[in-house]
Specification:
Elements (H helix, E strand, L loop, with lengths): L1 E5 L4 H12 L3 E5 L15 H16 L3 E10 L20 H11 L9 E11 L8 E11 L15 E3 L4 E2 L5 H7 L1 H17 L1
Helix pairs in contact: 4-5
């Protein structure tokens, strides 16, 4: 198994990525297990933030690093919350607060105007000074529901309507989600790129 550090302390994200990467013989070690602190996400795009996180984790650990920056874009809100998805309500990682604020901002908005998408950018760096990091992106189209449904997943999943399965993202099994999600798509791209790069 090849060791790779995941530039995240989000246990649910770690679990999701670990499951997806295991088939490619990667042992994913969350940065929190290696005493890597979070780095300020000072970028203005998902790509910039993912590169900042991957470089920091690789620099501190000396291991190859993978970083994910992801979020949800709501068309009615001109793409908000976007890169601020995890801290939309002002407190980082408060899923309930973020969901409540999103529902409040979309109060009274018709179903056809509630279109949204999850975005995920994954960056893989062989080392901190890697001049050509692999950058992969996945998108998952859906819309924002008027109330929460389901208790799986994390983040905005209870509010994200998944047309493919006619349920919320929080009602999908981990396997169903991995097959169609933004993170699953980005990871598939990344695995293809890694296989091409190292084969």
């Amino acid at each position: 198994m090849k060791k790779i550090v995941l530039a995240s302390g989000n246990r649910k994200k770690v679990a999701e990525l670990t499951q997806l990467l295991a088939q490619f013989q990667y042992q994913v070690i969350p940065q929190t297990d290696l005493n890597v602190s979070d780095v300020p996400e000072t970028g203005t795009t998902f790509v910039e933030n993912a590169i900042i996180k991957a470089r920091h984790a690789a620099e501190v650990t000396g291991l190859p690093a993978i970083a994910d920056d992801s979020g949800i874009e709501v068309d009615y809100l001109d793409g908000q919350p976007g890169i601020y998805s995890a801290r939309f309500c002002g407190e980082h990682g408060n899923d309930q607060g973020n969901n409540d604020l999103l529902l409040e901002k979309l109060s009274g908005v018709a179903a056809e105007e509630r279109t949204a998408r999850y975005q995920c950018v994954l960056v893989f760096m062989q080392h901190a000074k890697d001049p050509t990091p692999l950058i992969c992106q996945g998108t998952w189209e859906g819309r924002i529901m008027t109330e929460e449904m389901g208790d799986g997943g994390f983040g905005y999943d209870p509010l994200f309507w998944c047309e493919e399965h006619h349920c919320s993202a929080a009602q999908l099994t981990p396997e169903q989600k991995a097959a169609i999600s933004h993170r699953g798509k980005a990871l598939n791209q990344l695995m293809q790129s890694l296989q091409a790069k190292f084969s």
